[in-house]
Amino acid sequence: MAAWKFVVLGFVLSMLGYMHVQSNAINIQSYQQSLTDMYQLAEKENLAIHEWQVRMRDERKDTIRNKEEFAQLVDSWTKQLHDWKKTDVSLKGNEWVVQFTYDNLSHETTESVQLFAYLSPSQDDYTYLITYEVIGLMTSELEFNKMYDMLEERAQLLGLNNADVYVQIKAAHQPVVTKQISNIEYAEKWIKALGAKTVEALDEETFVSVSAYNPAWSPVLKTKENKMNVQVALRQEERMGGRTTVTIGTPIITTEY
């Protein structure tokens, strides 16, 4: 399970080369229950939520033949996202990328859109991805409804109705000193509370990662051996009595943890 110890979005994109996502056309509403379940678990277990994240990823069938066509693509998105901040376009090597960011004050979130083109296996054109990410502070279930409406609007605007979607929360846990419960026991407890069954686990001195499967949630990542769609990770501060950072994600955690 060590391969899951540090997972970033780029790694997930490559992982999907040998993992199969089993799902129909995905929309944001399919994730409302899982994100709500995570929030309710955090509330019940007195986890101090730092942030929630939603990521959408869509690999486009259209191809890009050269840098000029990628530049044209960037221009069209710049016009569409005219009130977003654009970073410098990177055209180094065979991987081209541009990112747009937007501080959404009305929803207290930070949004970003990234266009990423990479050389196709045929070596004669480029495949491109569109990723959308929103990060915010989860305050109440009432805020959920507003957030879901916003995400539906974004999916429509960006053409991401059939995108792969990843959601997660990050929180802090202060264990009760009088209770001798290990991090792996906490992780297993929370996996069970989410209605999932453990598939694989990694238990180290200051780090725990558990992958599990919940048949009620979609989509599902199908590895060579197991189905999985839930991850719980705990990283404990090394100092005595330090807090533990908890990350819970579906179908997989997509940030370093």
UniProtKB/TrEMBL annotation:
Transmembrane segments: none annotated. It holds the Pfam family DUF1779. Gene3D superfamilies: YwmB-like (3.30.360.40). SUPFAM superfamilies: YwmB-like. This is TATA-box binding protein. The lineage of its organism: Bacteria, Bacillati, Bacillota, Bacilli, Bacillales.
